[in-house]
Amino acid sequence: MSDSYRAGIIGTGGIAGMGILGMHEEEAIGTEKIDASHAGGYEHTDDIELVAVADIDEEKLETFGEAWDIPEEGRYVGHESMLAEEDLDAVSVCTPSFLHHDHVVDTARSAADPEVIWCEKPIASSVTDAERMVDVCAETDTELVINHSFRFTDKLRTLHDHVQKGDLLGEVRSVSTQFRMELLRNSTHLLDTLVYLLDARAEQVSGYITGENEALDTLSADRDVDDAGGGGFVVMDDGTFTTIDCTIPREESSMTLNVIGSEGKLYMNNDDGEWRYWSLEDGEHVERPIPEIDGSWTWEDDYQRSFANAAGHVRDLLDGNATNQSTGEEATRSLEIIVGFYVSHYTGGQVSVPLDRPLRDVTITSW
Q: From CA 221, how far away is CA 90, in angstroms rounded?
């Protein structure tokens, strides 16, 4: 094992290390280090050193470089120059989602030759782009890790193991879910949690798009995008019937999942910090503690630590001691549901997954 792996970041926005409006104190955004970020994850992980960063905005690049102590020679205007000059073991892609495809493909094929690319969610803006990213990383023997951060929390991983073993819920029959708009920017987290817990893929999708996007006001966004609130129903390939409501503004929403199985039921409310479980015993639901889980998932604790956990996972992949916990193939499962919602809404019909070839090219723009 190397004494210190070398990491670089493409993009200097909030998730890279400078904070996100709505999640962090407004006065800290753009001026202070934020632990719940890629840079924060690297800083809290032994054996990985953040040595380089790239952005096309020179002012943001300098602010980021100063905040995270990146030397002048490690600050690059444009990702191409960083990838040409640096020898990197890991690269984080923290740019807007419509740029993920180009930046991941460029990184995988670059002289920097990283073994791991840690890419922000959602994986891409179209299923075709996502599949191309997966293919190129396979061709270049690069691990593509998508930052659906809930997968990197100990509680959700433990819950996933119980659901998959069937000792908690038996056979899952139905799931109803709710989270905030917009589908790509926010609710990709909810959908990835759904497909992760079920270890399933969508089969039939019926969707509704509201056209509403609160980021236009709250984030002072400078470009129009397709991303909006929406939802619908999804029949998974294991037969589970699921409903998804991602139409609610941030302040009013709670990330919730109600899971009904043949041997029990589960209520998860991450925003209010409440996870509850009932075992079906002699025809009655009896509330029991969730085995091996102490307390509920919370944003303040579990989400904050998920970035250090993810960076630690990157290190373990570099060491050869782990199997990828959040692959590009799995991330594509949530994206194809979102694309399916849009196609269903605008065509007035149900959509089958895998999407037919022209539908895989449908692009949903976001930030």
A: 30
How far apart CA 156 and CA 163 sit, in angstroms, is 10
DSSP 280-335: EETTEEEEEPPTT--S---IIIIIHHHHHHHHHHHHHHHHT----SSBHHHHHHHH
User: Angle at Cα 339 formed by Cα 334 and Cα 343, nearest 5°?
Assistant: 150
Give me the tens of pLDDT residue by residue for the chain, a chain 367 residues long. 447 999 999 999 889 998 654 444 545 555 568 889 999 999 999 999 999 999 999 999 999 999 999 999 999 999 999 999 999 999 999 999 999 999 999 999 999 999 999 999 999 999 999 999 999 999 999 999 999 999 999 999 999 999 999 999 999 999 999 999 999 999 999 999 999 999 999 999 999 999 999 877 665 556 688 999 999 999 999 999 999 999 999 999 999 999 999 999 999 999 999 999 999 999 999 999 999 999 888 888 898 899 999 999 999 999 999 999 999 999 999 999 999 999 999 999 999 999 999 999 999 998 7
Collapsing DSSP states into helix, strand and coil, what is residue 352?
A: strand
Pairing mode of beta strands 351-352, 284-288? unpaired
Burial of 356 (0-12, 13-18, 19+ CB in 10 A): exposed
Q: How far is CA 246 from CA 227, 256, 314, in A?
A: 12, 11, 31
